[in-house]
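Hey,

Quick one before I head out. I ran the complex with pyridoxal-5'-phosphate overnight. Inputs first:
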Amino acid sequence: MSEKFTGSFTQQEALPEAAIEAALNVLRHGRLHRYNVTEAELGETALLEQEFAAQVGAKYCLAVASGGYALATALRAIGVKHGDRVLTNAFTLAPVPGSIAAVGATPVFVGVTEELTIDLEDLAAKADQASVLMLSHMRGHLCDMDRLMQICDAAGITVIEDCAHTMGAAWNGVASGRVGAVGCYSCQTYKHVNSGEGGLLITDDPEIAARAIMLSGSYMLYERHLAAPDPEVFERVKYETPNISGRMDNLRAAILRPQLADLDRQVERWNARYQTVEAGLRDTPGLTLVERPQAERYVGSSIQFLLLDWSADSIAEVISRCARRGVELKWFGGAEPAGFTSRYDSWRYAAAQSLPKSDRILAAILDMRVPLTFSLEDCAQIARIIRSEVGTVYQAG
Ligand SMILES: *Cc1c(COP(=O)(O)O)cnc(C)c1O
């Protein structure tokens, strides 16, 4: 009898009691709109921004309706216009190229390496094609950020970081989101803090911050922000920046604040689970783990491995055998995307590109969520199941 895993890959933990208390408090007073505050009151949303800015060491922070909204707002705030070209990852999630399309710009895709990071050689080769890079730290993998910034600085490229999977991560001790001109985070249920939907945007640039705040729908109430530039910066932009409402509300901010305060502890818990799965998969014949660089502090909220140069049929066989034993693997390389799109050739509003080196890697990526509701024993069991099914199919092939 082979063992079967019975846990759920989509079940998150309950929110902490402090978040539930804070939510009830907001519900009881009813002031959910971020600018609906009493005389002396500091609203939950403004406090969230102030606390997150301090946590990552940024000057300014804006809380918004979603991670994708934060990305599009960042593009608008740095001045990307209709028809511009924006460099971005060939391997990322749909909201990333979607944010580029939202401002009428065109994505130019940069390849992916076996480390699942942006291909810096391909980036250098394409550096003259755009003046903005929307850099996605897809699935939490950080590229060599020092080298990346050398390339971008030399080419005059402004970098926006998509930190949907790297909230809590760092490169050489610098928090993810603090290297580019703007860092964007998602607070959607499957990221590192959970408000259902939500996003955060950070920057040290006062003009970008003021424009982003106006864009998000601050009306003329920007002085109620606690992590915003001085009012004179708004004077310069307030009549020429359109309102494209996408504010965060006080209810979501209230439940996020206690979660952010607890982020480091959650990162430890994710990484203990990640490392248990990783240890269980190590040295499985035919399976390539993604080794994490020394300089990277990662958050193991999901794990990826490669079945490089396997046939599509064999990979599909591994996935279905694992599924029968309760282990849900996502395959980014399937001919038809399932559940969501993560690959450049799925975004056909952009001009078709050919990235053969990336195609080989994309075809090989398997991905698994590591929810905190899994115990370490669960993680060890999941790794045993994957290992045995990969082994069975590998030997047969
Ligand atoms: C989730 C995610 C986003 C933002 O998603 P929203 O659902 O809009 O918050 C951006 N990039 C990546 C890679 C993501 O996974």
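The chain has two domains: 17-261, 263-396.

Talk tomorrow,
K.
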